[in-house]
Amino acid sequence: MHVFVTGGTGTVGSAVVPELLAAGHTVLALARSDKSARALTDAGARVLRGELADLDVLRAGAAQCDGAINLAFGTDYSTEEALARSVAEESAALAALGEELLGSDRPIVTVSGTPWVPGRVATEGDPLPIEGPVGGRGRSVAALLELASHGVRSAAVRLPRTVHDQGKGGFAGLLTDQARRTGVAGYPGDGTQRWPAVHARDAAVLFRLVLESAPAGTAWHAVADEGDRVRDIAAVIGRRLGLPVDSVPPESFGPFGPIFALDQPATSAHTREVLGWRPTRPSLIEDLENLRP
Length: 293
Known about the structure:
Layout: E1 2-6, H1 13-22, E2 26-31, H2 34-43, E3 46-49, H3 55-63, E4 67-70, H4 80-101, E5 107-113, H5 135-146, E6 153-159, E7 162-164, H6 170-182, E8 185-188, E9 194-199, H7 200-213, E10 218-221, E11 225-229, H8 230-241, E12 245-248, H9 257-260, H10 269-275, H11 284-287
């Protein structure tokens, strides 16, 4: 299969591209910079220059491929306005890609987050939130999945709060970055809330499996660790960086503060049973041992 990939040099994308190539697929990847283009070319992909906001470029990429994987998302989470811009940009991109694939029966796999359900572990059958800081993302993913009735084999891979590799990435990565800036490995609240996690290379395998075989209109969970307590995550970060560990106000984490404070474990039991996905890489707590001061 010839696959169009956006976000191919991020934490997840840099694992997805080689996973696809190793499985015999070919890749056309969106690149917005010379640095990204070189990395993608070195990995063995063809490059299409452009940005996620270039909707005509996205349509052209999808038009010449057998399927698509959308992984691109903004990197500025400093304010609610910046996060909202990234959500809006992603929503427009998904709409453009889906429109290009209408009636083709070709697959498109997009990324979203695992939902949170008060009082229990979230499953693949739970809906994504459509309100709050990332509610727009839930609405755009739902719209893409609804294209299953219009000849698009659309699917979503829901990533947990932390997708990691060599101790970097996801919510745990944001905790690490803040710890380096502030000198304290902080966690919101009492730290008993749980965050699910997955290694990037395990997640990449699931993206490939979903692209190859998932039915239209379905959602899957790339969850390896059902839920690590946030204060346990912070404790490893503090020890590895030689910093004190302490509770800090949720608002210290900007627009993600309310999300950081939630207990949000998730399961991938259905995904493993149906698609045969088996994560084999190190857990988050194990992988954080790779952090260096």
